[in-house]
Write a structure and sequence with these properties.
This protein is of the alpha+beta class. It has one domain. The protein is built from 11 helices and 11 strands. The strands form 4 sheets. A 5-stranded antiparallel sheet has the order 3-8-2-1-9, with helices on both faces. Strand 4 and strand 5 form a beta hairpin. Helix 1 packs antiparallel against helix 4. The protein starts with a helix and ends with a helix. The C terminus is likely disordered. The structure holds iron/sulfur cluster (2 copies). One iron/sulfur cluster binds next to helix 6.
């Protein structure tokens, strides 16, 4: 299986995927029913997560950065999903079974607009050791901060645990709460818990979906289906990325404890 990991590593390197990790699928078996690796695949043994960084410049654009991010996300999600499916094929060529946990869509829409991934990608990412769940609800990685877009795989293959590149991931610095302060709808509380419904309502606009939802007698299954065919990829616009673009750690990697604190290094940025 070591050679197999080397093969995946080489493939990721060709595809410019700088961060990935693998661990035992049991680590997410306490997740809510319907969102566990075993709900997705019988005899699942391992989970894998990869991260692709969105260029800093997209968040740095003085104007229209949400539109720039919209374009980037649409392209990244397609790319990530393609890479995931190729890795699933590589795994299946060894006689195992593998399924992708796509970068964003499809997802379950619960209640009044709460989106749930089939398996939470930030949870997979934290479990495999490529970062910690940050105070803005996104993955916080020591090199890229919160600007990694993620994809995952569940598989029956029993793969060795690995986090690449090896890092001691510690998450957001304790004294930072910039994203909470910058959120225009106060969707992030002081503990870092994100009100997802408030966030989604403010940050995403899906005009075709919204119009179709004005029809009477739509059940939740209809709403789910209409959402997937009208609000996915380019059909939804991102209107807010404040909790990422305001994060000082998209500019400078997190300093190891022995280096001067970030506040001293970036001065005017904070
Ligand atoms: S995307 Fe915008 S609304 Fe949502 S949590 Fe971040 S800052 Fe708040
Ligand atoms: S601004 Fe960045 S480092 Fe600070 S709490 Fe938010 S995500 Fe973490």
């Amino acid at each position: 299986m070591k050679e197999f990991i080397e093969e995946i590593k080489r493939f990721f390197s060709e595809k410019h995927i700088p961060v990935f990790g693998v661990t035992n699928a049991r680590s997410l078996e306490n997740e809510p029913s319907g969102h566990r690796p075993s709900d997705m695949l019988d005899s699942v043994k391992s989970i894998l997560c990869l991260g692709m960084p969105v260029p800093k410049g997209i968040f740095k654009c003085r104007e229209r950065s949400e539109w720039m991010y919209w374009r980037a996300a649409c392209i990244y999600y397609r790319n990530i999903d393609m890479v995931l499916m190729r890795v699933c094929n590589i795994i299946e060529e060894k006689g195992e079974v593998a399924a992708p946990v796509y970068g964003c869509f499809p997802y379950d829409v619960k209640g009044k607009g709460d989106f749930w991934g089939y398996i939470g990608l930030v949870k997979i990412a934290e479990a495999v050791g490529i970062g910690k769940i940050g105070k803005n609800g996104l993955l916080f990685n020591s090199k890229y901060g919160p600007r990694l877009l993620l994809g995952g795989i569940v598989t029956t293959a029993s793969l060795p645990t690995i986090a690449w590149p090896e890092k001691d991931e510690r998450g957001c610095p304790e004294d930072c709460c910039i994203c909470q302060e910058k959120c225009p709808v106060k969707a992030i509380d002081k503990r870092g818990k994100v009100n997802r419904v408030a966030c989604i309502r403010h940050s995403m606009k899906s005009p075709i979906f919204s119009n179709l939802m004005k029809a009477d007698n739509l059940g939740s299954e209809d709403a789910q289906m209409i959402n997937h065919v009208t609000a996915v990829d380019d059909h939804s616009m991102y209107r807010c990325i404040q909790c990422v673009s305001a994060c000082p750690y998209i500019w400078i990697p997190l300093c190891p404890p022995s280096l001067p604190p970030l506040r001293a290094k970036v001065g005017g940025l904070l």
